[in-house]
Design brief:
346 residues; mainly alpha; 1% strand
Length: 346
């Protein structure tokens, strides 16, 4: 029986088209939210972040969770329709070109913030560890010795890269589900997701913390996957979204509360992106997608701003960093990311 009692409507396939939603603007907002939270962390004022009182953790973590949910929603359709080979190629050409250029750019510009002369800088082993581990999507190494010596997170060039390998892991798990035929069984996947949430909320906190945020990101990504598979059954309603958010924020204690907050805002994200007026959605569809560039250049821009003495407090740091990283994001989109995507489609 279809719900009709609250103002709203069911999600339809056209809502997931480029001109059917606000996803481009939303991704930009989420990338900016990461810079917002990092403005407090990197200037040594993490406890002054106002979003911590709302979500119990930095909004950057929450923004990444929404990123993963949106990613799961959007990439599943392409995998279902076009198969694994096209899916892998599309994901590789979306992530790697911009990432590789960013790695080389940060190493080149990092010399300007290094305490070494050029000869010693180029012989520094950590440069090549930073380059190759992240280029190969191994991750777990985001620093260059001698760079950013006078900041709170000393020598860390790009801490935001911790999510990249986790996103690739989610892509790999999704491809395995497609290869084994499980992706076509949405009921089984829904059961697995629910069981995963129950298990995650049941295990002792000291055990859960050993996995870090990985479990939250995987659950968010596959929430997006399930949302795509059950898309025709998702009812979009402003009153429902408001109710879910209020209830979740009022009962946010513990792991279950954290999951409820995440799910309520994922639903709010869908409602906001799809039920806005068509004119706004058309504007969003015509905008270049600077979100990836803003995300991968934001952290090094913030570190550079602090090192230079221009933004040693949160809000000036955010202002200057968004301006600088937006410039690099525009260059990355127009000269690297978008051409790579066009080439991949051909």
């Amino acid at each position: 029986m279809r719900i009709q009692s609250l103002s709203g409507r069911y999600l339809v396939n056209n809502d997931l088209r480029l001109d059917g939603n606000l996803f481009t603007i939303l991704r930009f907002v989420l990338a900016s939210a990461v810079i917002f939270s990092h403005g407090f962390v990197l200037t040594g004022q993490a406890n002054n972040d106002p979003t911590r009182t709302i979500f119990s953790y930095p909004f950057s973590t929450f923004a990444v969770i929404l990123f993963f949910a949106l990613s799961g929603l959007l990439v599943t359709g392409g995998l279902v329709r076009k198969g694994i080979t096209v899916f892998i190629k599309a994901r590789a050409f979306r992530l790697l070109p911009g990432l590789l250029v960013m790695l080389l750019t940060t190493v080149a510009l990092g010399f300007g913030f290094s305490s070494d002369d050029l000869g010693h800088y180029l012989r520094e082993p950590s440069i090549y560890k930073y380059l190759f581990r992240n280029a190969l999507l191994i991750g777990k190494y985001y620093s260059v010795e001698s760079v950013f010596n006078d900041v709170t997170l000393k020598n860390v060039v790009n801490g935001s890269l911790w999510t990249i390998r986790r996103e690739v892991l989610c892509y790999g798990l999704l491809a395995v589900l497609r290869a084994t035929g499980l992706l076509q069984n949405r009921t089984a996947l829904l059961i697995v997701l629910v069981v995963g949430i129950i298990v995650d909320c049941s295990i002792p906190i000291e055990v859960a913390e050993s996995y870090g945020p990985l479990r939250h990101l995987i659950l968010a990504f596959f929430t997006g996957v399930i949302a795509y598979l059950y898309r025709e059954k998702i009812y979009l309603s402003w009153p429902l979204a408001a109710l879910f958010v209020v209830v979740a924020l009022a009962t946010k204690r513990g792991e279950l509360g954290t999951q409820l907050v995440a799910f309520s805002f994922i639903y709010l994200m869908l409602v906001t992106s799809i039920l806005v007026p068509d004119a706004i959605k058309k504007v969003s569809s015509r905008l270049p997608d600077y979100s990836y560039g803003l995300y991968i250049y934001g952290f090094p821009a913030q570190q550079a701003i602090i090192q230079s003495g221009l933004g040693v407090s949160p809000y000036p740091n955010m202002f200057f960093s968004i301006a600088i990283s937006l410039m690099f994001a525009a260059i990355s989109w127009h000269l690297v990311e978008h051409p790579a995507l066009r080439w991949a489609r051909r």
